[in-house]
């Protein structure tokens, strides 16, 4: 059990939730890029950075058209890569869009995003996970608080905290239609969770997570450090956030749907090992094991 | 069936949802008060008015202490006046607090509120309904969109639109802990709903409403008129809103609970008749049939 010996972030192994101080830098020095020192420092201390109006109106039209095309593809609702809303049966997420769509592959490799992510991670990067999310109006469900890294570490074998998520707003996000919320500074603590990971956990966890969920006491402590911030950003803005920040979103009863694209960039010096829970790895469409630099990703076949 | 003949706001009677133009003024002239002409005009056109910092810190301490006392009273969780969260079994609402608590009776009759409400309604007023709401952290459930007047008209026999609700924030309301949301200008339309009212509907509807719920198309149209507004107000602020405005709130997954007190003031020239659905009236603790001017309410017995 080599993996267990090396596990500096144990989770789902003990009877009590604990907070472990982060052992990795947030910003890894070594590469220049377009972010200012202030932006880098803010990302390091708060764990996130919002960049407004990165995409143009015409780029957004293309991206929204692609979402429309994908969500109306007849077989997509049944595909493994697709997550359905529990109540309405509408498509909530489609995974691995950087492999199935030229448009999203090109967006994932866009230098406006990648140059900033490389600058934060201090190395070349590959896509660990990608997905398109739609939170429908009226009954869009909440996503409960979680650290992505906790799951990626335990279930995918991501060794250390050296990955950055990028959420790209395709629609205007208001405070009242279930936008992304984060707990600033929570990325500086690893919230070790209780409960053993069940086999094939991903089949349920993408709809409603029951393991890898921080305790109420943990969340109270983390919220005391830095409260809660939400992101009412305009379409075309992006939010970069550290892989270990606690985040979630409330329900959306408003009539306005919300959609975004989500790319996870992992450092090529932090590629996956065996999952730390000891179970088989999750499927490729959730946790990529082809460590291709994002700029060299092949172009998907035409539609 | 006199009531049916006089029913200018029919609902739950037809096969299709419809929008009926409001037939009543929003601001009823006749009484002076502390609201400015701008405030009155804004209330008339938008359907709501937020007044910041109306209560002092020491008043808030007393009110929060009263909530604490009431929600820890041993028998309250079983009382008819109490609504329990479906999942956590925590107390979500307590009705009729102006009759059970001296503190809330005095707040209901406070001239800072009552003088403004009388000015809007152009007459003396009584309390149609009162309640204390607590939306707990982590799993506070959403309240779906509704017009209170629709229910008060159909199930309680409130004849016309001449009532004002007052929501008093006892805790800071952030955009991310499930604050009140309204659809501005929606009070100018009566959203007639489909479906017949079941008997003793209130027993379920206080937890999760299934009748008197506007259709998606109706909500889209109303949101196009004036979008959606939420109220991230500090503790001690109040929001006055018209009885017919569409309102609701999203879930609260944040660690911070939210509590407020809610008084409904109805004009003494608009007292209840038989319910327009033809069923027996709802109980007194939900829909008061003692039309006592709020300033003359008896003081509840000591604790």
Walk me through the structure:
2 copies of one chain form a homodimer. The radius of gyration of chain A is 18 Å and the shape is globular. In chain A, the strands form 3 sheets. A 7-stranded antiparallel beta sheet of chain A has the order 2-11-7-13-5-4-3. Chain A has a 4-stranded antiparallel beta sheet with strand order 6-12-8-10. Chain A is of the alpha+beta class and 303 residues long. Helices cover 25% and strands 22% of the residues of chain A. The relative contact order of chain A is 0.25. The first copy, chain A, has 9 helices and 13 strands. The first copy, chain A, has a single domain (21-165, 175-296), classed as q2cbj1_9rhob like domain (Jelly Rolls, Sandwich). The A-B interface holds A 137-138, 142, 144-145, 174-178, 181, 216, 219-220, 223, 228-230, 232, 248-256 and B 137-138, 142, 144-145, 174-178, 181, 216, 219-220, 223, 228-230, 232, 248-256.
């Amino acid at each position: 059990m080599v993996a267990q010996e090396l596990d500096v972030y144990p989770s789902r192994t003990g009877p009590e939730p604990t907070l472990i101080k982060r052992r990795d830098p947030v910003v890894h020095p070594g590469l220049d890029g377009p972010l200012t020192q202030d932006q880098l420092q803010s990302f390091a201390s708060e764990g996130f950075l919002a960049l407004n109006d990165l995409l143009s109106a015409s780029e957004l039209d293309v991206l929204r058209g692609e979402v429309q095309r994908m969500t109306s593809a007849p077989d997509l609702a049944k595909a493994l890569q697709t997550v359905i809303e529990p109540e309405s049966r509408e498509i909530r997420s489609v995974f691995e869009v950087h492999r199935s769509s030229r448009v999203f592959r090109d967006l994932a490799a866009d230098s406006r995003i990648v140059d900033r992510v490389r600058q934060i991670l201090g190395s070349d990067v590959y896509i660990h996970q990608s997905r398109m999310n739609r939170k429908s109006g009226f009954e869009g469900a909440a996503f409960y608080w979680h650290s992505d890294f906790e799951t990626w570490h335990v279930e995918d074998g991501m060794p250390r905290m050296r990955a950055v998520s990028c959420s790209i707003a395709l629609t205007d996000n208001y405070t009242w239609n279930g936008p992304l919320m984060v707990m600033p500074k929570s990325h500086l603590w690893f919230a070790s969770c209780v409960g053993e990971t069940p086999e094939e956990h991903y089949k349920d966890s993408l709809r409603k997570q029951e393991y890898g969920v921080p305790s109420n006491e943990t969340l109270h402590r983390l919220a005391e450090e830095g409260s809660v911030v939400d992101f009412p950003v305009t379409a075309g803005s992006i939010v970069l956030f550290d892989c270990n920040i606690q985040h979630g979103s409330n329900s959306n009863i408003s009539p306005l749907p919300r959609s975004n694209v989500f790319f996870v960039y992992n450092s090529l010096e932090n590629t996956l090992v065996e999952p730390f829970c000891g179970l088989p790895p999750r499927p490729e469409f959730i946790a990529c094991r082809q460590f291709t630099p994002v700029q060299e990703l092949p172009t998907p076949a035409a539609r």
